């Protein structure tokens, strides 16, 4: 993982509120998540917002969807620097997976050389990942002078990369301007 790049984001987060685009997308995120949540109340629901920035959306979504656990992770934000771990169910010996992981406007911030590593980490966390990926340059310029969106790809290119880890991945939405794509990993 490119820790120099994470250091750039640490500076941005310390200077202002940043990484809250998921709050604008909250209703659509909730709608898509309900497709994969278990219908039986005996099955626990675990939600993770991976690369959450300073957003609080996962707590609201978790509350509204009655999740047993709703957590946020972001390596550049104090209090969110460690990926939360789930306790294995009694006697199972297996680590449970997150029911679903949100990855909202994150992948375009990952340096090209780290994209595969990040997808591998996400694959180990859940079968169900909801990606929203911005496909245009960012307004934000990092302290080092580089654009915050360092990896720009077309929707089909992102889908091909994601399908290497989740063969059932599919595009469910593109915004009208063609700047954002929504990809889910469940059938």
CATH superfamily: Vaccinia Virus protein VP39
Oligomeric status? single chain
Structural class computed from helices and strand pairing: alpha/beta
E-strand count: 6
Described by the principal axes of the CA atoms, the overall outline is globular
CATH topology annotation: Rossmann fold
What is the share of helical residues? 25-40%
What is the tally of helical segments?
6
Strand order of the largest sheet: 2-1-3-4-6-5
CATH class membership: Alpha Beta
Radius of gyration: 16 Å
Return the string of H and E elements.
HHHEHEEHEHEE
Biggest pleated-sheet summary: 6 strands, mixed
- What's the architecture in CATH terms? 3-Layer(aba) Sandwich
What can you tell me about this protein's structure?
The chain is an alpha/beta fold. It has a single domain, classed as Vaccinia Virus protein VP39 (Rossmann fold, 3-Layer(aba) Sandwich). A six-stranded mixed sheet has the order 2-1-3-4-6-5, sandwiched between helices. The mean pLDDT is 88.
SSE diagram, text form:
Layout: H1 3-15, H2 21-24, H3 26-33, E1 46-50, H4 57-64, E2 69-73, E3 100-104, H5 115-125, E4 129-134, H6 155-163, E5 170-174, E6 180-184
Parallel strand pairs: 1-2, 1-3, 3-4
Antiparallel strand pairs: 4-6, 5-6
Task: Describe this structure in a few short sentences.
With 187 residues, this protein is of the alpha/beta class. Helix content is 28%, strand content 17%.
What descriptive keywords fit this protein?
single chain, 187 residues, alpha/beta, 6 helices, 6 strands, 28% helix
